[in-house]
Recover the amino acids of this structure.
């Protein structure tokens, strides 16, 4: 995190004192929005770039008052005061920009003002607002963006932006010229309920942030602040409860390479009127149950792809057909687009949809087979907290087993993959949409053995000129197997050798002489490949000495299969969890035949290491005329906590050390 210097901290303390004095009536009544006089006084003490470690701008104020209706719709009155500190800040604020989805939110821009450094205040005419379509890729839901050019700013100037929003979930921008918000056509996903997730972290410093919810007194809420501390208060104001959450001096977080999602480690507020996940589960079931009818064409396709298969094979056949034949692209079906699955008959005809539609297609096909199956909500890449607010970005399929337990399937993940659920999404929060309602649960954990990369050099030889020849057989499952299939699926076999040779990583002279691999869409077995490699001058040779490094310990094709283990972990410690792609088991076995009369004089030492996050084992047997070794690396978790990072780094460093050590041979 960025730290302010002592002078900056003194300045911020003065400013916060002013904020406290200016909001002193909060001692006797709920917090009130700031007025122009208060803004001027706050700006006078806000300081310059030196007070904020060179930041380009500072949010002097970021406040929002949310007025919730019994229907679940809410109107948000917000004010942001942004002081420009550098030329980069000028450029970043030259255009006011906001996206919108009129099906879910409407926003009116109430005012935009420039507070000049000399005290002059200018109103920016709202007549200059223009609307354009947003850039879209794969999901075409008709979003718009509203743009307003800002007159030339100077260092020391500040923007004051006030907006009103009505809708739910996400603050989109609608008609900026509207004097009143039009809520016609807006319907909350769960009528009568309201929920929100509000981050209290930032990419720019914030001096004061306030988030106030004005809730009808007969609508109780539950909330929790995660990953940090936020001040909270509750006031009674007649038939309204006023919940306020605030924080001061929020410093930007630069983060760390390959950290978990920021929502999983930085402060956020999760708030909801929904009493429990069981209600959310029932709502999701009822909102989508009408979408899974099958027609004759769907039933015929199910019969075709499952003929002669047992029950488990039928399930997998349907999943792989959906994954490989329903393309990922989204088109809008109207106001309920964000949370309603498209009708499966439409999806089948269009051969396309987003994750919810792909999951729905599989639900319909499995129901044709007689399985009890439903949609499920999840959050790919991030955690779902216990407060039952909407924290989802992905929909999958869940099947109830005969014993009442459930299994989860993800056809969106499974194109050209043997996996039925992504090994990259282990222990993710899930809420099944069932008629009786389900509590939140977690997706399966994947053991390292389920994400295996195993290489066996069946015949490695180094001749007296130092040329290496070797036959390598690779067997892969889980995440590494998926990447082999997808990497080879896009190319014709006769082109693949040249492409993969770039990532061979067995020395500058190494080349692939022969290559064969699994049909990427053969899901009946683990992925595999066979390749013959030759590398002239692989070993450094003299009259009576030969030096080389262990071939498989160079990690052939690592950029394809295990790239995340070679990110470059230079830091000795971490503040945030490290996020890797999956658990892993890496195993190498190789025997190297030496030229006649040669023997191993010295070789890397055997070693082993065990930690809570990773372990390593290396055994080597040098001898006359040959050298054999076995290497194994086990990654036990795909999220490495800071307290376990040291052990993980030590295992990775040990693996890299072995790769760099020399085998020295001599001859009689």
């Amino acid at each position: 995190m960025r730290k302010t210097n002592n002078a900056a901290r003194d300045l911020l303390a003065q400013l916060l004192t002013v904020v406290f004095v200016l909001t002193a009536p909060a001692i006797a009544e709920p917090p009130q929005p700031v007025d122009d006089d208060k803004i001027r006084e706050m700006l006078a003490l806000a300081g310059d770039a030196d007070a904020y470690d060179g930041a380009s701008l500072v949010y002097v104020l970021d406040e929002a008052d949310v007025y919730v209706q019994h229907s679940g719709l809410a109107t948000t009155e917000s004010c942001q005061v942004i002081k420009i500190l550098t030329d980069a800040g000028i450029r970043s604020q030259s255009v006011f920009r906001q996206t919108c989805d009129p099906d879910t939110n409407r926003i009116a821009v109430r005012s935009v003002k420039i507070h000049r450094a000399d005290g002059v205040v200018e109103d920016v005419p709202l007549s200059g607002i223009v609307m354009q379509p947003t850039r879209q890729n794969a999901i075409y839901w008709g979003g718009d963006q509203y743009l307003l050019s800002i007159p030339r700013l100077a260092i020391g100037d500040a923007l004051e932006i006030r907006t009103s929003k009505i809708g739910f979930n996400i603050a989109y921008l609608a008609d900026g010229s509207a004097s009143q918000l039009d809520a016609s056509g807006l319907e909350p996903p769960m009528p009568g309920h309201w929920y929100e997730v509000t981050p209290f972290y930032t990419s720019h410093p914030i001096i004061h942030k306030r988030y106030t919810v004005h809730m009808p007194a007969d609508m109780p809420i539950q909330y929790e602040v995660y990953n940090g501390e936020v001040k909270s208060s509750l006031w009674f104001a007649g038939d309204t409860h006023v919940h306020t959450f605030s924080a001061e001096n929020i410093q930007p977080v630069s983060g760390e390479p390959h950290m978990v999602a920021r929502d999983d480690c930085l402060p956020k507020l999760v708030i909801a009127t929904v009493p429990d996940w069981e209600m959310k589960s029932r709502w999701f079931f009822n909102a989508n149950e009408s979408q899974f009818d099958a027609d004759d064409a769907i039933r015929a396709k199910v019969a075709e792809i499952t003929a002669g298969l047992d029950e488990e094979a039928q399930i997998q056949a349907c999943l792989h057909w959906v994954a490989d034949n329903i393309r990922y692209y989204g088109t809008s079906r109207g106001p309920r687009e964000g949370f309603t699955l498209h009708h499966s008959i439409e999806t089948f005809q269009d051969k396309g949809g987003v994750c919810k539609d792909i999951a729905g297609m599989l639900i319909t096909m499995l129901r044709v087979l007689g399985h009890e199956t439903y949609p499920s909500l999840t959050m790919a890449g991030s955690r779902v907290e216990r407060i039952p607010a909407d924290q989802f970005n992905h929909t999958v399929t869940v099947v109830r087993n005969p014993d009442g337990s459930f299994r989860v399937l993800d056809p969106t993940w499974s194109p050209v993959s043997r996996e039925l659920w992504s090994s990259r999404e282990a222990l993710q929060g899930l809420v099944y949409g069932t008629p009786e309602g389900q509590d939140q649960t977690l997706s399966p954990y994947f053991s390292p053995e389920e994400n295996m990369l195993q290489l066996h050099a069946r015949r490695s030889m180094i001749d007296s000129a130092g040329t290496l020849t070797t036959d390598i057989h690779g067997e892969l499952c889980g995440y590494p197997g998926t990447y082999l299939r997808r990497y080879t699926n896009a190319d014709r076999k006769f082109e693949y050798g040249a492409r993969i040779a770039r990532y061979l990583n067995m020395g500058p002279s190494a080349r692939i002489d022969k290559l064969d691999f699994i049909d990427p869409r053969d899901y009946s077995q683990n992925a595999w490949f066979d390749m013959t490699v030759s590398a002239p001058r692989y070993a450094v040779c003299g009259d009576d000495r030969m030096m080389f490094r262990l071939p498989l310990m160079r990690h052939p094709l690592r950029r394809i299969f295990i790239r995340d283990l070679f990110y470059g972990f230079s830091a000795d410690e971490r503040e945030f969890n490290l996020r890797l792609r999956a658990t892993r088991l890496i195993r190498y076995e190789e025997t190297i035949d030496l030229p006649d009369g040669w023997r191993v004089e010295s070789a890397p030492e055997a070693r082993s290491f065990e930690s809570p996050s990773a372990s390593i084992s290396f055994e080597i047997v040098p001898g006359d005329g040959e050298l054999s070794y076995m290497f194994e690396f086990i990654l036990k978790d795909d999220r490495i906590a800071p307290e376990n990072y040291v052990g993980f780094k030590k295992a990775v460093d040990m693996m890299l050390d072995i790769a760099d050590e020399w085998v020295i041979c001599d001859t009689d």
